[in-house]
Amino acid sequence: MKVHEGKEMIEHDERQIRKALQQSFPPVNTELRRDLWPAVLRKLDARPTRVPWYDWALIGLRPACSCSSRN
């Protein structure tokens, strides 16, 4: 009998918590207000691709490192 009472209390507590959370947080609107893809394309077109100098240095060092590890 006590197991049943404990389960009822837990379910009651869960219902109270759920109700409090639903009152605290408004429903979320999952609809997009606008299409985001054109904005993404504009950002990609506006920003030039730049390769930092250290990337070029690492690219240049790569063949030297691979040759020394084979010997």
Can you describe this structure?
- This protein has 3 helices and no strands.
- It is mainly α and 71 residues long.
- It has a domain at 1-25.
- The longest helix is centred in the N-terminal third of the chain and has 23 residues, at 2-24.
- The mean pLDDT is 81.
What is this structure's SSE topology?
Elements: H1 2-24, H2 37-46, H3 53-70
Which structural class should the secondary elements be placed in?
mainly alpha
Identify the quaternary structure here.
single chain
Write down the secondary-structure element order.
HHH
Largest sheet: none
Strand residue percentage:
under 5%
Helix content class = over 70%
Low-confidence stretches: none
Ends apart, CA distance between termini: 79 Å
Overall form: elongated
DSSP E strands, number: 0
Mean pLDDT: 81
Radius of gyration: 30 Å
Number of helices: 3
Q: Which terms would index this structure?
A:
single chain; 71 residues; mainly alpha; elongated
Brief digest:
With 71 residues, the chain is an all-alpha fold. The chain contains three helices and no strands. The chain has a domain of 25 residues.
